[in-house]
Design brief:
mainly alpha
Amino acid sequence: AGALVGLCAVPFLPLPLPAAWPFLGAALAAHLAFFLALARSYRVGDFSQAYPIARGANPLIVALVAFVVAGERLTPTSLVGMGLVAGGIAALAVSPGRRVDWRGVLAALLTAVTIAVSLVIDGLGVRKAGNPLSYLAWIFFLDFVPITLYSLRRYGRQGFVERARPLVRFGLLGGLMNTT
């Protein structure tokens, strides 16, 4: 669905400037890494721990990666606020007496890193594109390619179709929601 939304927008927008193209390629690789890390997080960990850890750690990792890669700087107040929000979200993953599954925690942290890397790459790519909507339309349009190729390689054509068929409705809905 995201690819269809992107495909509908691409003809009406200018091409991203050539300076953005390397970021488009890097973003596609980073998005695939995110999808794989997220799936692993949910497979090896408890969803109620994996999701808050991945989302809670993400803002701090984004700030760190953006600082190192792009020289972005946040005010001390912003850092404290971000730490409080991230800590609050991550705190949802732990409760007194709850067993911590370290494999799940590590997978969730890897997911947070892939989210952060994706966001920084996309942020830099949007800046280089000349038109932010062009970059987004192309990302939405092309994003299905790496995950589809990976899935076809892993499961084969028949296995891919068997796995995808029952998920089409939810996948279309999720893809549409992702583009808004």
